[in-house]
Amino acid sequence: MSMVLIAVLALLALCLLCGAILGFAAVRFRVEGDPIAEQINALLPQTQCGQCGYPGCKPYAEAIAGGDKINKCPPGGEATIQALADLLDVEPEPLDAVEGEVPPRVAYIREAECIGCTKCIQACPVDAIVGAAKQMHTVIVSECTGCDLCVEPCPVDCIDMIELGSNLQSWKWDQPLAPGQLIASDREQAA
Amino acid sequence: MTSLNIWDIHGGIHPPEHKELSNRTPIQQAPLPARLILPVAQHLGAPAEPCVTISERVLKGQRIAEANGFVSAPLHAPTSGIVSFIGPQPYPHVSGLPATAIVIDSDGRDEWTALQAHADYRQLPPADLLEIIRQAGISGLGGAGFPTSVKLTAPRTQTIHTLIINGAECEPYITADDLLMREKAAELVAGIDVLEHLIKPQQVLIGIEDNKPEAIEAVRSAIGQRPYLLKVFPTKYPSGGEKQLIQILTGEEVPSGGLPVDIGMVCQNVGTCVAIHDAVLLGKPLISRITTLTGAALSRPMNVEALIGTPVAELLAFAGLDRGKLNRLIMGGPMMGFTLPSMDVPLVKTTNCLLAATLDELPPPPPALPCIRCGECADACPANLLPQQLHFFALGHEHEQLKAYNLFDCIECGACAYVCPSNIPLVQYYRAAKGEIRELEQKQQKAEHSRQRFEWRQERLRRAEERKEADRKARAERAARAKAVHAQASSAPLQDDPVARVQAQKTGTGLSEAQKKLKIEASMAQVALKKAEKQLSAHATPELEMQVAELRIAATDAQKALDKAITAASPTEVSSAPADGEAIKKAKIEAAMLRAQIRKLEKLEAHDAEQQAELTRLQTRLVEAEQALGGAGQGAPAAPRKPAGDEMLKKAKIELAMKRAELKKAEKAGADDAELSKLRDGLTRAEQALHVAEEKSAKPAPELVRTDKRPIDEQARALKTEAALARADLRKLERDADSDAAIVEAARQRLREAERMVQEYDS
């Protein structure tokens, strides 16, 4: 009887001790914010374009953490969807966008037509447009994320979205066809 | 000194060398091209910034583009000529994309700019020496094109103990360094002297493969008694790779992802050393280089010293290119070079070879077959990597794995692909994978940067919003406080509170909407009247006079209407301040005006009878006015009301003025007598009407003072002018001291005569 009692008491003591440690840890090592939302945010392209229906990348990251779909980011494209699917361990879905994936673009202000209204400056989420009231505005290409949020507010429609295209710095080698995937004439030659 | 103490590297291959094609003839001078294309990006790092303008004349060796940042190199004109274009031009790159270049049209004179040689470089501080090398635009001539001055700027934490001179030239076909060492061994050693002085290493090693006996001999004799160690080692590809050469010569390995400087070593190509010699001892910037022109499609393969910017097509034509035989044109060697998309591209600082290959020489690679995991590639890899594993990871785009298997240590030498029995283009996979990973990293970096900017912006907007909110609160508080004070004041009105008094006054004499309107109208009429009067005083025309008269009536009407409205609105206060005040003010003004007039008259020294009369009249009026003022001051009833006759009087006056104007106009226009007399009658009638009105009105009639201004006829004017001229002449002569007395007398006579004539005419 006493042995049973000792065992029960010992276990009880152990439980209390562990509970105390866990309780302490819960307070002392409390994680601020939602770590998964942060991780998701790191994968998003940060164009802040709002095409997902949320006012910026972070809100969308929080929404994904809350269970929203992962295929609402057109600037990120398939690569982002794949990365999100890997992170969250869900099935990748096709991109949910009318135009599909678009090549990277930047805004360009036709400076002769700009009237200096500052509306685009107020719309730019990353402060990539410089200018002042009644002065010509211009886009800092290296800072522009291509979100096209400045196009809509322009009263004289002097903003174009220009495709960046390929230059010597961004050019990269194409991956060759996987061995064995031969075009018909090569197959004859290899045989 | 020659040392045989060498190490071996892992892997490596022994492809056919084909060096004998081009190393049998001495270095030739390429003909001066008519047009030079100089891309601003011929080195690793930031492209240079052009510092010349189109149509500017440049001299040979003149700087045409500045280094743009630390990891950059300037660019110099290879010959004298005119800058004809700055913009996108063909560029030697696999993609065939154009790049910004400066185009110089050569003038054929090849005229040097002033050069500054530094034969006494040992006296210069290291920083100055480094700057000379930097300003000479030297970048690695071995193939990578890293700016040499950057490579020589050792980090402070690391001392360089070994300087390695790379004369391996391991790639097949290329013999540029071989010939350079044979023909310019003295310059090479002098360049090494400069480097040795600059870096002060413990040892200097010169590595040359054993397939260049003539070069070895030349360098050995040039070294003489210097403590440089010449190391000759067996030919093997790719022993000329920087990291591989270091391992062969010293037995040490550069750590993964690191640089030779991490283990205290610096490696320089032999061509770079000669360029340093030219820059420091001769003052010549890097404007030419030695390039191998080889391949079976050339009838005269050779090494040329060509100006940077020479079009490739011209060089190949010089070497006897047979376009029919040409299959592939490669810049660089057959292992690491790349196929040129066109022959318009220029020679750049990193071009060590142009290989014009026939179909037999470099047949197209057979189609790739699946990997059989034979492991040959791993045996051949000089970097100790696992090419087969990397290949599979690259196929699956497994970037993490690729990085874990040290993809970025791959030097892309092509040994693995060379030995692959399945003909898999392995290097292409690695290049593609490297590009993909770099691109992703760049994207991630940009995303991170954008996120930061976005967050900063949000933070800024939030702060602005907060400030606005605080301002708004402060304003509301102030307003509330003011209101409280006001409430206190109105509950116990203080006599000396100015705000309260003004407010009280406002409510006391508050004007209704209609009154306000009338007031505005009255003041507008006054303003219009004043304007017209001003114009009238400037140039009096009858039209204007009429207009002024009309305006005056309108203004009086408006003022009257306003007065009426005010009196009607406050009948109980008729006698109180405002109306009364008005009358007093008017009386005061009148009195003051009269006084001023009197004073004016009194000031005149000699009064004639008329003026005296005027003065007395004014004085009586002043007394009257003062009495009126006193009356008004005592009480409202005594305030001088405008009698009804005033209106009539004014009208009559206006009528008279109009009539007079009409008459004048008619006279001027030269109307006939009948009309004039009619007008004159009208004027007299108007005058009479005015007199009647004056009698009726309470105002005393103004005394008519008619100045008799007789019009001057032509003759009188002529006479008077003559008199004035004579007078002026006389004065002039009198002023002039040494004028002839006779002439003066004559002038006096003339004046007298003229005056007499005037008087005669007047009378």
Description:
The complex is a heterodimer of chains A (191) and B (763). With 191 residues, chain A is mainly alpha-helical. In chain A, 36% of the residues lie in helices and 7% in strands. Among the domains of chain A are: 52 residues, 3-methyladenine DNA Glycosylase II, Chain A, domain 3 (Orthogonal Bundle); 64 residues, Alpha-Beta Plaits. Chain A has six helices and four strands; from the N terminus they run H-H-H-H-E-H-E-E-E-H. A two-stranded antiparallel ribbon of chain A has the order 1-4. Chain A has a two-stranded antiparallel ribbon with strand order 2-3. In chain A, a hairpin with a 7-residue loop joins strand 2 and strand 3. In chain A, helix 2 crosses helix 3. Chain B has 763 residues and is α/β, with parallel strands linked by helices. Chain B has three domains: 356 residues, NADH-ubiquinone oxidoreductase 51kDa subunit (Rossmann fold, 3-Layer(aba) Sandwich); 184 residues, no CATH class; 49 residues. Chain B contains 22 helices and 18 strands. Chain B has a six-stranded mixed β-sheet, sandwiched between helices. A five-stranded parallel β-sheet of chain B has the order 1-12-11-10-13, sandwiched between helices. Chain B has a four-stranded antiparallel β-sheet with strand order 3-9-8-5, with no helix packed on it. The longest helix of chain B has 66 residues. Chain B is elongated. Chains A and B meet through helix 6 of A and helix 13 of B.
